[in-house]
Specification:
Layout (H helix, E strand, L loop, with lengths): L3 H15 L7 E2 L1 H11 L1 H16 L10 E17 L15 E22 L3 H67 L5 H36 L8 E2 L8 H9 L1 H4 L1 H21 L6 E13 L9
Parallel strand pairs: 1-4
Antiparallel strand pairs: 2-3, 3-5
């Protein structure tokens, strides 16, 4: 009976290890890519930058349109006025009475419109407009680079999860084999075919395999958390991954390598930056040329003053 205790102990321990792998939904490569494109923060920021650049490249931001400025103002005053004439006499020789004006209202209105338009500025506006268009395309390439790097990070972690999943399966099988080895060693010892040392060695192998399995499970859990970070979902989300790897045929790889320079996003960004710098130089040189502009304005003023002791309203 004493020999059955280690077997039961290892069986219970193994069941506790393998329970966490049951009934986990499978996350396919396509589903992982879709979740990353929808939820990843880096991709969301890159898309917002593209929208900003698209708004900036509009002709409304190029300086081609005229500038219209309008202003208006209104002033209203209401006063009670008393005017004294000390030492003055009227036509009858009597002291001149004070002049009182109650609820005297004064109103002033003015408005104006100014139109400014640049007819010629050395083609600076044209080069600036083209530069904004190039910057928009550069932002698109930057967003593409962000997406490509995110996908590279995604599949690196995804395949790491797949590798660790296979490792867990291998260590689990090794633990089962070591457990069976204990049983065989116990029967062999019982019939006198080996010594107690063989049983102890088998128990040591079971312990080592259990430790390896626990370490592999911990590494797998860490890798799954890393994958959840890339997918921007709950870090404790559990899932299984597709461990089948389909390799790209050699002919397709050769085609990808042949078009690598044409599609390399870093090279395309460098070309866009060169064009933008060329346009910036042309914009700076346009300042040496004269500027011809058109300006027009219209103004309107109205003053309404109350009557006073000396002037009528």
């Amino acid at each position: 009976m004493r020999r059955s205790y280690p077997t039961i102990l290892f069986l219970v321990f193994s069941l506790g290890i393998f329970t966490g792998f049951a009934q986990e939904p499978t996350l396919s490569k396509q589903e992982a890519m879709t979740l990353a494109l929808e939820n990843n923060f880096g991709i969301k920021v890159a898309r917002n930058q593209v929208e900003i650049a698209e708004n900036n490249q509009s002709i409304l931001n190029s300086g081609f349109l005229p500038t219209l400025t309008a202003n208006a103002a209104a002033t209203y005053n209401r006063d009670d006025i008393t005017v004294e004439f000390p030492g003055q006499l009227d036509e009858n020789g009597q002291p001149r009475p004070d002049f009182e004006l109650n609820k005297a209202e004064a109103q002033r209105y003015n408005t104006g419109v100014t139109l400014d338009y640049t007819l010629f500025d050395g083609l600076g506006r044209l080069y600036n407009y083209k530069s904004l268009q190039e910057q928009y395309e550069l932002t698109e390439l930057q967003a593409r680079e962000t997406i490509e790097n995110t996908m590279l990070q995604l599949f690196s972690v995804y395949f790491e999860v797949a590798r660790l999943t296979e490792n867990v399966n291998v260590f689990r099988q090794a633990l089962e084999i070591s457990r069976d080895r204990i049983t065989r060693a116990e029967y062999a010892f019982e019939y006198g075919q080996n010594t107690k040392l063989d049983i102890l060695n088998a128990q040591v192998d079971v312990t080592n395999d259990s430790i390896n399995l626990l370490n592999a499970k911990q590494q797998l859990a860490n890798a799954k958390r890393d994958l959840n970070v890339v997918l921007n979902q709950n870090l404790n989300e559990t899932f299984a991954v597709d461990t089948v790897v389909n390799f790209i045929p050699r002919l397709e790889l050769d085609e990808f390598i042949a078009t690598a320079k044409e599609n390399n996003v870093a090279l395309l960004q460098t070309e866009k930056n060169l064009k933008i710098n060329e346009y910036d130089i042309k914009v700076s040189r346009s300042g040496y040329l004269p500027t011809i502009g058109l300006s027009g304005s219209y103004g309107w003023n109205l003053n309404q003053n109350p009557p006073s002791a000396f002037f009528p309203g």
